Every structure is written in C-alpha cells, then in structure tokens.
Amino acid sequence: MSVAVETLPAFPFDWNGTRLPAEVEALRAEPVRKVRTIAGAEAWLVSSYELCRQVLEDPRFSLKDTSAPGAPRQYALTIPPHVVNNMGNITGAGLRKAVMKAINPKAPGLEEWLRARAGELVDALAAEGAPAELRTAFTDPYSAGLHCRMLGIPEEDGSRLLRSLDVAFMNAPQEIEAARLNWDRDIAYMTERLDDPATGGLMAELAALRDDPEYAHLTDEMLATVGVTLFGAGVISTAGFLTMALVSVLTRPDVRDALAGGRGVTGAMDELLRVNLSIGDGLPRLALEDVRLGDVDVRAGELLLVLVEAANHDPAHFPEPLAFRPERENAADHLSFGGGRHYCPATALGKRHAEIALETVLERLPGLRLAVPAEQLVWRTNFMKRLPERLPVAW
C-alpha cells in the first residue's frame, strides 16, 4: 500500500515586482506553512504580521545559526559562513561605533553630497535625452557612490565592486564558483585600501586601529571584510529599494499622486517602504529549541523564513493593505528593515538616501514614465532582491 506524500509548495513564489504574489492571500488561513526552498530543504514560511514580528524578536530563532554545518538552507551560501551574522561580528570585534558613525545620515556634508550627486545623475540623463535606463544610469551609481564615499575609497572603483553583486546575491541550490572568486578579489581590493594613503572614511579609521594595542585581535582580512560587506549589503539594499520605489512611482498612479502631493516624499516614506516588494526571499532564522508558533510546533533545528511582504500587507495589522495611504498611522510598523536584534542599523541612512533621490527625480523629470509597457519589464529570478533587469524610462 503506497502512502501519499505531500508536495510542498516551492518558495519563493513570484519575481514580478509590480504585484503582490497571489500565494500571499492563501497564506492568511495558514500563517505558518511548510515550503520547499531553492536548496531543496523544508522550511516554515511565516506570513502573518504578528508571527513574523515574534520570530524576528525571539532570541530562540537565530540568524547566525542558519549558516551552521548541516543546517537546512534557503539557498547555498555565497559568502563565508561566519559572515552571515555580519553586524554581530562587527559588534563583537569592537567596531560598531566606527561603523555607526560611517552610516549616520547626519554626518557632515553627506546630505549635500547626496543632493549634488542625485542632481548630477539626473542632469546627465536629461542631457543625453530619452529613453534612459534608470538602474545603470541612476540608482546603481547613486547608491554605489554613496557607499564609496562612506568607506573612503575612490568613487570610480564602485563599478568594479558593483559587478560582484549580481552573483553575490544570487539564490542558487549549490555553491557558485564565481561568488568565491569575487569574494577573494574584493577582499584583496579592500585589504590594499588599508595601506593606501589616499584612503579616507571608514576604511582609514579601521586601518588606524591596527596601531592600537586594544585592537590587536583584528586582522587585515577582518577589517577588509567590513568594507566588502558594508558595500555589498548596503548597495544591494539601498539601490534595490530605490529601484522598486521608482517602479511603484512608474506603475501606480496612487503612489505618484501621493508623493507629488502635500505630504511629499518624506511624509510618505514609511508607507512606500511598507508596500515595497524589493525583498525577494524570506528572512531566515533557525529554531534553537522547540517553540510553539501560532498553531504549529516548530522543532529545534528547523528553518523558518519570515515573509516580509506578507507581513507588510497583513489586513489584520494594516487595514486595506493594497491601498497606498501615507497618512496611515501605523505605517512605520512595517518590517522592511527587519526587526529584533538584527534590525537594520542603516535604516535612517536608507530612508534619507531614497528620499533625496526620489525628490530629485520627481522635481527635475516631472513627466517621467515607463518607456516600455509594464508587462515587458524583465524580472531577475533567484535573487535576494526583486529587480527589473532594466528600467527604461522617458519624460
């Protein structure tokens, strides 16, 4: 007698960033649901706002341990396992103060630089004329330039570091050779910057610590890792959100009207983050012990994936979640920056970075529109961020 075996739904669901995946609505009745990951492992997909926040805030669910040998994987690692808990490593090494100083949006001259750089890029678009491709001509160089400035490395080197990110943030079932090669190359580059007298910013501060006996435990590789990871995670997150915010502006009249209205971009930022679909996977956590989660008993050693887009569109917490309402009182409750111990420390910088960019684009290119039908946008697959491969626009 044969026994029926349940076929688990594959996760992620849909890479099209102009719509909430259809599966999200079905998950409302089963907010903790087993799925099959890209790596072939079983995982609990958590989708209600209440339970997603619980997982992110409960120390019994660990990010660091998702990289442990033998742990079920969402996808193959593209970075060394110990780097998964990057901010934890930075804090443990005594470098958090230096990093937080570098990512402070109120750092002297930073806002002026953001406005000037955004203006330069938009002026260059206008001078060249339509059509233009917003990712390569605006969002990517704008975000990469910001991170080069913070790290204190030449802005022209941003393009070489950017090339690594297309592979570093892939979701693949097995290890990727190019990811390792890129990692080694980028670590070598950042290591060289430690001894370069022209280096400034955070990398210069880190280099100076090598003369302090209190930091004798630090190696050049550890310091270079800070630079590589801050550039990679920072650029992919800020450029990804900004790109998808522009997708919302270009495909949703309600978003465009709200941003151009009385509240402006700043007043609408949290709602824009709430509806943003740039997070293409789930935030992973490993259960350290048996935990009751909703109606499900999660066992120690099992993988959980927090589905941010579902939490941010949970009608139990955000009434009429598909509507874009900048005046929404609890818009700032969104989980787009994570939560708990791993809440993104660059939240304020990410917001200001996007606000200035969107204000500049809307002011200088008020007629901005997609230059191709929205259904012709090509969406990147098996990637940690939802991204259109190209974003052609006219004005």
What brief labels describe this structure?
five-stranded mixed β-sheet, three-stranded antiparallel β-sheet, 10 strands, 45% helix, globular, Cytochrome p450, 9% strand
Chart the SSEs and their pairings.
Blueprint lengths: L22 H4 L5 E5 L5 E5 L2 H9 L3 E2 L23 H7 L3 H7 L7 H19 L3 E2 H18 L6 H11 L8 H18 L6 H8 L11 H32 L1 H8 L3 H12 L7 E5 L3 E3 L2 E3 L4 E4 L1 H5 L34 H18 L4 E2 L21 E3 L1
Parallel strand pairs: 2-8
Antiparallel strand pairs: 1-2, 3-5, 4-10, 5-8, 6-7, 9-10
Helix pairs in contact: 4-9, 5-6, 5-14, 6-10, 7-8, 7-10, 8-10, 9-10, 10-11, 10-14, 11-12, 12-14
Family: Belongs to the cytochrome P450 family.
InterPro entries: Cyt_P450 (IPR001128), Cyt_P450_B (IPR002397), Cyt_P450_CS (IPR017972), Cyt_P450_sf (IPR036396)
Protein name: Cytochrome P450
Structure characterization notes:
Belongs to the cytochrome P450 family. The chain crosses the membrane at residues 222-247. This is Cytochrome P450. With 395 residues, this protein is of the alpha+beta class. The chain has a single domain, classed as Cytochrome p450 (Orthogonal Bundle). 45% of the residues lie in helices and 9% in strands. It has helices at residues 23-26, 49-57, 86-92, 96-102, 110-128, 134-151, 158-168, 177-194, 201-208, 220-251, 253-260, 264-275, 308-312, 347-364; strands spanning 32-36, 42-46, 61-62, 132-133, 283-287, 291-293, 296-298, 303-306, 369-370, 392-394. The strands form three sheets. It has a five-stranded mixed beta sheet with strand order 1-2-8-5-3, covered by helices on one side. It has a three-stranded antiparallel beta sheet with strand order 4-10-9. The longest helix has 32 residues, at 220-251. It is globular.
